[in-house]
Amino acid sequence: xxxxxxxxxxxxxxxxxxxxxxxxxxxxxxxxxxxxxxxxxxxxxxxxxxxxxxxxxxxxxxxxxxxxxxxxxxxxxxxxxxxxxxxxxxxxxxxxxxxxxxxxxxxxxxxxxxxxxxxxxxxxxxxxxxxxxxxxxxxxxxxxxxxx
Amino acid sequence: xxxxxxxxxxxxxxxxxxxxxxxxxxxxxxxxxxxxxxxxxxxxxxxxxxxxxxxxxxxxxxxxxxxxxxxxxxxxxxxxxxxxxxxxxxxxxxxxxxxxxxxxxxxxxxxxxxxxxxxxxxxxxxxxxxxxxxxxxxxxxxxxxxxx
DNA sequence: TTATACCCCGGTTCCCCGGTCGGGTTTGCA
DNA sequence: TGCAAACCCGACCGGGGAACCGGGGTATAA
Lengths: 148, 148
Fold this sequence. Notes:
Radius of gyration of chain A: 18 Å
Distance between the termini of chain A: 52 Å
Number of helices of chain A: 6
Number of strands of chain A: 2
CATH class of chain A: Mainly Alpha
Shape of chain A: globular
CATH superfamily of chain A: Winged helix-like DNA-binding domain superfamily/Winged helix DNA-binding domain
Oligomer: homodimer
CATH topology of chain A: Arc Repressor Mutant, subunit A
Number of domains of chain A: 1
């Protein structure tokens, strides 16, 4: 009965990696796991699993062999945060019937649960990787100005 | 770094119990744990712990001894679902410093995380126990009409 | 052909949720 | 005063998932 709106460390790692790939999207060269991992300070073997999940979900493409690595499958503005989080957290694949509440109290609560979930998802839907990237650049600008 | 918007089974139990207490709020007699547990099909020893948490948070009052039990500390329309979930899930007490992201990417993501959290909390804020109770009654009416 | 880098699968450690149990202490009532 | 009803407290446990680590296999560019 738990509501799957868990923005775990897992999702954050995935987003960090994808932001990194977004920044690298202009030149069409793949980035290696190690590169991303050291850049964003993520355990590389763990990141490998996350990237595999993202690949199976069709968000990134991989290139094997020497000089291989990962590429964004679509452009940064075509990937929403919801796309990322939902595939990592796996909460569009689980259309499980759940334990039916039966009582009217239980039904009412699950209705509210749904509403909470939708509110959370709406926020994730409205941001794309491009948005994150731009907000990063803006923040760095502020840092520079503050430094001067 | 996980975002604490977890509507677990725990919170649902707590809400079910509080709805039960809300329905019983008119006559100022306490309800026993066993009563609530059997009514809402919750393991009683587990419910006991949840009610203790709710009591420490000041949402319910307890009356000890024979003919004792639990009472709502405030009126049903004065208790929001946020009050309940936050105290059960314990996510206003944990103002832990978290691991600071340092990188601008990390900061941007935590900002989005905050926004998601606030969206979810806003939904929980706008409903009170009274609302749940009324929606329950409405649903039961529909059931009766459907039965006829 | 060989180094590189992805791919697959399994195991481990840790923590928390859901749930149970035993043994208190407090209180109402006869 | 004594008993029983009810709350209070802490320990414990099984299961599952998060976060990781390793080993070995496979494709590919140089």
